[in-house]
Amino acid sequence: MTLDQALAFGLMGVTIALFLWGRFAYDAVALASLLIGVLLGIIPLDKAFSGFSDDVVLIVAAALVISRAVATSGAVEVIMRPVTPHLRSTAIQVPVLAGATMLIAMFTKNVGALAIMMPVALQLARRTGTPPAALLMPMAFAAMTGGVVTLVGTAPNIIMSRVREELTGAPFRMFDYTPVGLGICAVALLFLAVGWRLLPGGRRGAASMESAFTIGQYTVEARVPEEGGEVPMTVAELEALSEGEVQVSAVVPPSAGPRSASRPAASRLPSPDQRLAPNDVVMLRGEAAELERLVARAGLVLPGDGPTADDPTTDEDDMQVLEGVVTSESPLVGRSPAAMTLRSRHGVTLLAVSRRGEQHIQDRLSQLRLRAGDVVLLRGLAATMPDNLGELRVLPLAERGTALGKGRRSWLPLAVLVGAMALVAAGVLNIVLAFFAAVVALFALRIMSTREAYDAVDWPVVVLLAALIPVSGAIQHTGGTDLLAGWLTGAVQGLPAIAALGVTMLLAMAVTPFLNNAATVLVMGPIAASLAGKLGLNPDPFLMAVALGAASDFLTPIGHQCNTLVMGPGGYRFGDYARLGLPLSILVVLAGVPLIAYVWPVVPH
């Protein structure tokens, strides 16, 4: 072993030890390792920051942005809506939700697919009384297995494609992973459909900050748009769109004027058979998230949609929605938004009000006399919102990610994703350019703002990848991978080729929970290829085995983002993951090794 090899191994060993310790953030450890590698001379200065321009970093970031756009579009909720009323038992809910998550993960980043489906699962669990713990872990595991089907589904596949390109000159293509991945998905889904019973009962999700807000239900005022003439929808049909979560407390025809809603609430309750007409104003009462869904599904218009009165050129991306409490010193107390000329004078629009002790707010929001203690939802320019809240003496609440008033639901994000995948599959564009073009299309179509895109990117993961690429490359460039492969060759010498393939997958699977799937691929990929070369075998199945093993982290909550994402909402403990994950890991090895050997022959022709 040379001095450079010893330094490279020592640096990687310390890096892994710090990852295992968990005292410092992964990205900070990776950056420190990069700096030390440059100072030791094992990473050339001209290669030190090459990871930040690597294609894999751009692909991962773009996949996260596209996944967020699809998640917020509501398209998946619309697709799932006809199915969810029939999911009454846990035995049906688990395979359907896991299968849907698995399918989405084949075409988006797996953590993005899970984020898309989690609200559907939590809403279903609340309505049917199913423990979220019975649904969320199977969905997380389904997202990880679904991700192995295509190049973009999981980071190990993306990184392994780059590793193969460096080693052989040709990367893995979009659907090279598909034959093996589909087989793994079939095995995993069959197991999860019954294996969820291995999870302990009685787990309760950890309380989030949102649960600390006991605001109650909001009342919003929405208008039926003019387009399309008579709306073929009754009050009962409108409420049915929310599956009983939102109530229509009043319908005000346009000819009645804004003050017509001042009659007692009991006399204004509409008949369920009353048909809505264009420009009718409907008063809706419910939770903010449910109101947002109903407004989007029914195509209703909230007050304040469009540019502000004082600046017609206002862009939607410049707007912000905030919750606040009307203080006793507020000039709003005892006055209505109309009397205060709230929008024209202060540049904010009142979207919704929550008032303690009142089931039905009797006035239209523009004529409602506000009280101290009212919780209001205000929409205005982000740049001036702090000053406006100060002038109005409205105390802002901690941001809860309320979508009401800023949701832009559309099928376009899904269409953009499908278009990008089609261009890659047809060979028109490579994966980097296709996903970059998809993100630009989201901006051009005004589906997502640049600020929302930056929020969607998991920057610690991006920095981790960018820093670890040259660090892991140091082992390969100093000859360390050949040295390790030689030792591993001695360990598997005399074993059948398929057994060597199985050992490689097991090694990747064992390292991933305690390291990181990206780091595992970067370190293990070159070692596996070198091992195959020393054994006289085809390197492709060994690279596939490493990618599949690194993507199959079912044993701990810390090795993969999907596992971490469901830990709090599901109320899981560290040991719960092995209950379901260990048998699934065994099944993946038993099914994955022969599948890889069949699709990618181990012995070269």
From TrEMBL:
Subcellular location: Membrane
Region: Disordered, residue numbers: 252-278
Residues annotated as domain RCK C-terminal: 309-395
The entry's keywords: Membrane, Repeat, Transmembrane, Transmembrane helix, Transport
Residues annotated as transmembrane: 7-24, 30-49, 56-76, 96-122, 134-160, 180-199, 414-445, 457-475, 487-508, 580-600
InterPro entries the UniProt entry points to: Cit_transptr-like_dom, DASS-Related_Transporters, RCK_C, RCK_C_sf
Low complexity composition bias: residue spans: 252-272
Membrane topology: Multi-pass membrane protein
Name the record gives this protein: SLC13 family permease
Organism listed in the record: Muricoccus vinaceus
